[in-house]
Amino acid sequence: MLNLNEIKELIEMLDQSSIEELDLKDEGFRLQLKKQSSKVHIAEPTMVYDKATPQAASTPVVPPAGQSQTAEVNTENADVKDEAFHEITSPMVGTFYASPTPESDPYVKEGDQITSGKVVCILEAMKLFNEIEADISGTIEKVLVENGQLVEYGQPLFYVRPE
Prior knowledge:
Strand content: 35-45%
Number of domains: 2
Radius of gyration: 17 Å
Number of helices: 1
Largest sheet: 4 strands, antiparallel
Distance between the termini: 42 Å
């Protein structure tokens, strides 16, 4: 179950994105958010309490100071897209992190060879850190988002040239 601060953070992320509706379901919990007149409101909250133990969150990764956390599609890279490339897209709304900690190297960079199942980044959503794995083997041609940037569901994160 989400606490009040997590719900507020989710509302802010939804408000900043182009997503119109979000329906979040978990064991014993449902939260439905819809935008209306450019404002986010809770449409039909439903909370069912049960004895399920919440999953522990990972240690937070903080983006370097001064890096943007706004949701924006990187249009300058749009001309790089080619039918020969495969897109690795965001499976959720969240904050993109290129590395597991601010001090460590990124999981992948342009020119790296990857295999299917390799972790390519982390997406943080509601204090949960989700490792995103490549769904194809190939070469990273372009990293489309900046570290610490808020990304939307379905937004391309990487272009990969398949093997």
